Amino acid sequence: MRKKAICFTLRGKRVIERINQGLAELGTEPAEAYISMREEAETDGFFKDGFIRVTEPLADWVRIHFRSGCAILFIGAAGIAVRALTGLPSDKLIDSPVIVIDDNGRYVIPILSGHAGGANKLAILLASVLGAEPVITTSTDINDAFSVDMFAAENRLEILNREGIRQVSAKALEGKSITLSIRDYPPKGPVDIIVADDTDAEYSLLLKPRRYTVGLGMKRDTEEEALEGFFLKTLEMADLRPEDVYAICTIDLKENEPALTALRDRYRIPVLTFDRELLAKAEGTFTASEFVQKVTGVDNVCERAAVMGAGGHAELVLRKQSENGMTMAIARRNVTALSAF
After folding, report:
1. Got the DSSP string for 98-150?
2. 3-state SS, residue 219
C-alpha cells in the first residue's frame, strides 16, 4: 500500500523520518514525505532529505491523495485531519485509510477505513516501528470479536448486502456464535453469513467470491490515467466490474511500476507477479509476440499471467487486448466457494 505522510512541525518531520527508517529496515515501502509550513518557519536545508513542500491549501492536497486510495498519515493534531477530510469520506468499504500520529510519535490512531482499508493493521505496524501505542477504537477489535468486513477483505470476498455487516457485528459483540455456510452445503435454517455467488437460503450477509484475474503487460513509465482507463475498458468488454477481480497479475519486472501500484491502491486489488520461468510454464495456447519474448524472455505476459494467477484449470475468458503499449487478458478461476478463501 502506498503511503503519503504529511507533517506541520520539525517534530513531525522527525517522526516521518523515524517511520521511514523503520519501514526500510523491515523491507517495506516507505511513506512519501510531505511538509506544510509557513515559509518564515523554515530553517536552512529543511526541505532536503526527500521532503516535498505542500504549497496548495491542505484540503486540496488531501483531496488529491484521498481519491487515489493510498493511506494518508497526518503527523499532528487529529483536528487538522478532521477538518482537511471534510466532505471526502463517503463509504466505509472504499474510503482511503487515514491515520493520525501525534508529533512526538507516542500514539498512532486510525480514524478512517480501519477494516476494509487496512488502517488498523497499518497503525499497528507503524506503532511497532515508532515504539508507540496504537489507539484502536473499532468495537470488534477492542472487544476481540469477529469482524466480518475484515474477514471479507482478507479473503477477497465481495460484500453484496452491506446492511448485513451491522447485524453480524452486533451478534459478534454480544458474544454469540456466528454461523457461516458455503454455497454447496447450506444448512436447513437461517445463517449469519453465506459465501456464494447467489443463494435461495436465508442469511444476514452474502459474500461473493471474486472469480477473475486480470493479466497485465505494459511499457515502462505508463501513465496512471492511461492504465486505469484501459483496465476499466477491458473489464467492460467482459461485462465485469473491478469488484469481480481477485488479482492483477503480471511479470515481476513490472511489480514496482507507479501506474500499477496506483491501480492496485485505487481499487484495492492485490498484485501477483511471476518470473519469466513460471510464466513459461502456464498451461494453454497463448498469443505469442517476438517483441515481448525479446524484452521479457517470455512470448506473452498478459494471458500467461492471468492464467497463472487464476490457478489450476483456469479459463481464459478474454484474450490479449492491446492499447498504446499496454496489454490485458482476463481469466476465470475454476474454484468452489470453499476454496476461494
Report:
1. EEEE-TTS-EEEEEE-SSTT-HHHHHHHHHHHHT-EE----HHHHTT---HHH
2. coil
Give the per-residue pLDDT at 184.
Answer: 63
SS3 of residue 262 by DSSP = helix
pLDDT beneath 70, residues of the chain? 38-48, 184, 186, 335-341
Residues in the chain, overall count = 341
DSSP state of 96: P
Provide the pLDDT for residue 183.
Answer: 73
**Three-state SS for 58?**
helix
Residues in contact with 248: Cβ distance below 8 Å, sequence separation at least 6, in sequence order: 213, 214, 216, 260, 263, 264, 269, 270, 271, 272
Q: What cell numbers appear for 52 in the block?
A: 516535498
How far is 341 from 335, CA to CA, in rounded Å?
A: 10
Which residues are bridge partners to 159 per DSSP?
207
Share of the chain above pLDDT 90, in %: 82
Residue labelled with grid coordinates 446492511: 163
Q: What domains appear along the chain, each with residue ranges and CATH number?
A: 3-137 (3.40.50.11220), 148-209 (3.40.1390), 212-340 (3.30.420.180)
CB 254 within 8 Å of CB 275: no
**Residue 147's pLDDT is what?**
93
- The answer to whether the beta carbons of residues 37 and 62 sit under 8 Å apart is no
What does the buried/exposed string (b/e) look like for 223-245 if buried means 16 or more CB atoms within 10 Å of the residue's CB? Answer: ebeebbebbeebbeebebebbbb
Averaged confidence pLDDT in the chain: 91
Sequential DSSP letters for 177-198: ---EEETTS--SS-EEEEESS-
pTM, whole model, 2 decimals?
0.85
